[in-house]
Specification:
Helices cover about 55% and strands about 0% of the residues. It has helices at about 10-20, 25-40, 45-50, 55-70, 90-105, 115-125, 130-140, 155-165.
């Protein structure tokens, strides 16, 4: 079986200080894996995994990352969130685009989602989905606040007839 070995980028005391100085639980676990492998050489990944309560693939991956990147392997780790290289626009560019849209709205021009979508597509040079526009709104805390003044299928005659024929107080059916 394959035995794990870490390169001596840091001494055992420096590894222990790095481990104890972590405030993030994830990074603490990563440094705990590296420290365990460096202080207990000659074991297999399954033994480390059972000792630390993780899977052996994670042990392999972190030891490999530490050996490749060195002592600063944890500075480039990113969890979740937006990846700028995969995003259509950066957050700052989105904010500036929404700022121009807001200025148009303040001037009294009525904007719909389709108008905003066209502006975004023109600035990007490619088409985007409707979901992208709604996600853009939620990322920048824009909300759709448009009350409906009246029901589109209202019938004024029925409303007036109801007002004339309805009781002004409620009487149980048993007392009629």
């Amino acid at each position: 079986m394959l035995q794990l070995k870490v390169k001596p980028h840091l001494s055992k005391q420096a590894l222990l200080k790095k481990l104890q100085g972590q405030k993030d639980v994830r990074l603490f676990q990563y440094w705990q894996i590296i420290y365990s492998v460096s202080t207990n050489p000659g074991k297999r990944s399954a033994e480390y995994a059972s000792l630390l309560g993780i899977n052996k693939e994670k042990v392999y991956r972190l030891v490999q990352l530490y050996n490749k990147e060195g002592a600063d392997f944890d500075t480039e780790l990113i969890w979740g969130g937006r990846r700028e290289e995969r995003s259509h626009m950066s957050i700052k560019k989105e904010a500036s685009l929404l700022q121009t849209i807001e200025e148009k709205a303040i001037k009294g021009q009525v904007l719909t989602v389709n108008d905003i979508k066209k502006l975004v597509e023109n600035s990007l040079g490619k088409s985007v989905s409707d979901d992208y526009i709604w996600d853009l709104f939620s990322r920048h805390n824009w909300k759709k606040k448009a009350p409906r003044p009246e029901h589109p299928q209202k019938d004024i005659k029925k409303q007036k007839a109801f007002k004339k024929n309805s009781r002004s107080y409620w009487v149980p059916a048993s007392q009629k």
